[in-house]
Write a structure and sequence with these properties.
This protein is of the alpha/beta class. Helix content is 31%, strand content 22%. The protein is globular and about 45 Å long.
């Protein structure tokens, strides 16, 4: 039976790609978006639920009947510097608590390299890396089956990705490399299918020079190296 996957932030540049990869992998997909959000025609077959991170009931209603949640919500650069706290910390916490109420046990959170770091230029935007770490910690302490994916800088490039390898590391090992959003989306879906990703923070970047590797093998090499 296909997994019912909810994707919050599904209209975003990463979220819609995650939804496309989930469909390709055979998942049933529910798109969680804000009112007025636009979606590409490629997602017309998906269920859609309108929700608000400020309304707990709307989150519950959007998640009922799903088996897993992938959180791709994230604050965008804006003059409103409260965005990271509202979305990356409080918003993530509300989604976690909603999962507990509606009995969803599996969560994937898209975060960022350097989450939790104080001295970083990105923190000029509302201390975003600090608030992302607050959201991460809420998930780590939730008691649910979680995976946190920390991507590097995100690009829109879609070309020549088949042979591009992903560099996987544990937390706080990478700083300034990049990854196309499409490869990040593939990582998210691979994490859902990889039980050993549960309870792990995985940092991901990519390079044409990096040899492709399955997530399962990368996790074994990182966390369970042969003695």
């Amino acid at each position: 039976m296909a997994l019912n996957l909810a994707i919050s932030g599904a209209s975003g540049k990463t979220g819609y790609r995650v939804a496309e990869e989930a469909l390709a992998a055979g998942f049933r997909v529910r798109l969680l978006t804000r009112k007025g959000s636009q979606l590409p025609p490629s997602l017309s077959s998906c269920d859609r639920a309108i929700f608000s991170l400020e309304n707990e009931k709307s989150i519950d209603d959007a998640l009922i009947g799903c088996d897993a949640l992938l959180i791709a919500t994230g604050a965008r650069p804006s003059p409103d510097l409260t965005g990271p706290a509202r979305i990356d910390a409080v918003g993530v916490k509300r989604q976690i608590e909603s999962c507990k109420r509606v009995n969803i046990n599996r969560l994937i959170l898209v975060s960022s390299l350097c989450a939790g770091r104080w001295l970083h230029p990105l923190n000029l935007f509302g201390l975003i890396l600090l608030w992302k770490r607050v959201g991460e910690k809420a998930l780590e302490q939730s008691g649910l089956d979680w995976t946190i994916i920390r991507p590097g800088g995100l690009s829109e490039r879609e070309e020549n990705l088949d042979l591009e390898g992903i560099r996987y590391t544990q937390a706080n090992m990478q700083e300034d490399a990049y990854i196309p959003r499409r490869l990040l989306a593939k990582c998210c879906i691979e994490a859902l299918k990889t039980n050993d990703s549960i309870g792990k923070i995985l940092e991901v970047t990519s390079s044409p020079e990096q040899k492709p590797i399955k997530m399962q093998k990368a996790i074994q090499d990182i966390f369970f190296p042969a003695s």
